[in-house]
Specification:
single chain; alpha/beta; D-Maltodextrin-Binding Protein, domain 2; 2 domains; 3-stranded parallel β-sheet; 3-stranded antiparallel β-sheet; 7 helices; 8 strands
Length: 183
């Protein structure tokens, strides 16, 4: 029951923040410059981040997709969400091929190139290891090891600062978990 209350509070907070972000021309000036009232905003999401955002047979789905589209209806904008490779999505926004990104984590490097709204969702990251490996608990335990990361993802950005952690870009999460399982 406590979990349900916490979820409801989190969703209410998320909706409030997302509404403020989408209705604030100061925070999303470039996005609003490309779409007149009643126009279309193109937002990109990670194609492989269920249940937040993902590609389901060519259709963008997920909690942030539903919320972004609902808010778009309330404020008079058509919201078109596309799901693409996360690294490509970030490049598309930088090139002006889309108006914004759904669910991107802050970092000092990213703050130089993107404008951020207030946080919409709390992101937590985990280190997944083979079931027989009990020695890895912290980032420092990854030194000298190969670590699978999503290209353009926050863990990739964070871990690239550790010279002795070997990063291997994963194709998708399903393939990464299969590789981890097989050793």
């Amino acid at each position: 029951m406590k979990w349900i209350k916490a979820c409801k509070k989190g969703i209410a907070f998320f909706l409030t923040v997302l509404y403020i972000v989408l209705t604030s021309p100061f925070q999303f000036g470039s996005a609003f410059a490309n779409a007149e009232k009643g126009g279309t905003l193109i937002l990109l999401g990670n194609e492989d981040l269920p249940p937040i955002v993902y590609n389901d047979n060519g259709t963008a789905k997920g909690v942030v997709v539903d919320i972004a589209q609902a808010i778009g209806e309330k404020i008079g904008y058509n919201i078109k969400v596309l799901t693409v490779n996360w690294e490509k999505a970030q490049q598309m926004v930088l090139k002006g091929e889309a108006d914004g990104l759904l669910h991107i984590n802050h970092s000092p490097e990213r703050e130089v190139i993107y404008d951020f709204s207030n946080s919409l969702l709390k992101s937590e990251f985990s280190i997944f290891v083979h079931k027989d490996n009990r020695s890895i608990k912290y980032i420092d335990d990854l030194r000298g090891r190969i670590v699978g990361v999503e290209a353009g993802g926050y863990p990739c950005l964070l871990l690239q600062n550790y010279e002795d952690i070997i990063l291997e870009k994963i194709i998708n999460w399903k393939a990464a978990f299969k590789a981890l399982h097989s050793g």
